[in-house]
Amino acid sequence: MYRPTSGLDSPRFVGIRTFMRLPHVTDVSRCDAFVVGVPFDTGATFRVGARFAPEAIRSISVMLRPYHPHHRFDICERISVVDAGDLTVLPGFTEESLERVTAQLVTMLEQSNGGVPIVLGGDHTVVLPELRAQAAYRKQPVAVVHFDSHPDTWDEYWGERYTHGTMYRRAVEEGLIDTAHSIQVGLHGTLYDEDDWSQSRTLGFDTLTLRESLELGIPATVERIRERVGDAPVYLSLDIDVLDPAYAPGTGTPEVGGYTTIQMQDLLRGLGGLNYVGFDLVEVLPQYDGPGQITSLLAANLCWEFLALVALRKG
């Protein structure tokens, strides 16, 4: 079993930065889960810089400890986890990068016999090769739980079909998503027109805007997600901009009126037991972060919650 170096054994500032001070291991054959960075931001339509997010999230993740007080277990006693490093991308070349990321992830899924990747983005374009890899490995589409301010189902930007705002439409067109068991949660912010959110439902997603979620309450939102997903293999994708910029200022397209940190924790902690096949956390831009690296710190803690969800399934 792989597990992190303890802060009781050596100071947190000692050593090469890996996620949570986990061993850096590229052979994931003995892993239940593995953290992997995809430092790609060529798909961004406004601010760029998410290519530096894996490094920033890893750096602050030294604060994390393996025991989860809510679930009452040591994550790394239940599952074997490593930091597998970053995948190779070509900055400035979107489609070639997506092909490379897909191929590398398929190899890792095969090597780990279906181990669960925890992907540190990168802009949200990276979810497309992640879903391509899952569908190729599993020979079937997967359900998606998508937390985001934005639906990311637009058709194109400036004639370009592969951006961080179009990849869910591309994934549906490619048959990668089981939309009958998929849901987008937390939509909010300004819109181009009234079709921005309805186009997701046209593609087959269920949707919960942030206002609808808050009116239902967090427990009912959790139940809505659970009912939608059922037993389907599911990929959870979390854009950090679903949280209010008071808590996550370091992002590419911030939208006011988002979830609080504790609401996001409660949402994730209520989603144990689903058949998770992968996770990602995207759209952290360290150069726009606030004092104390608050966005990167939040991102690291949410990825820790992902690992706990894998551990719950294994327990």
Features:
8-stranded parallel β-sheet; Arginase, Chain A; alpha/beta; two-stranded antiparallel ribbon; 315 residues; 10 strands
Explain what the structure shows.
The protein is of the alpha/beta class and 315 residues long. It has one domain (19-314): Ureohydrolase domain (Arginase, Chain A, 3-Layer(aba) Sandwich). It has ten helices and ten strands. It has helices at 53-60, 75-78, 94-111, 127-138, 167-173, 195-203, 210-216, 218-229, 261-269, 294-314, and strands spanning 33-38, 67-68, 73-74, 81-86, 116-121, 143-147, 183-187, 206-209, 233-239, 275-282. The strands form two sheets. Strands 4-1-5-10-9-6-7-8 form an eight-stranded parallel sheet, with helices on both faces. It has a two-stranded antiparallel sheet with strand order 2-3. A hairpin with a 4-residue loop joins strand 2 and strand 3 (73-74). Helix 9 packs parallel to helix 10 (294-314). The longest helix is centred in the last third of the chain and has 21 residues, at 294-314.
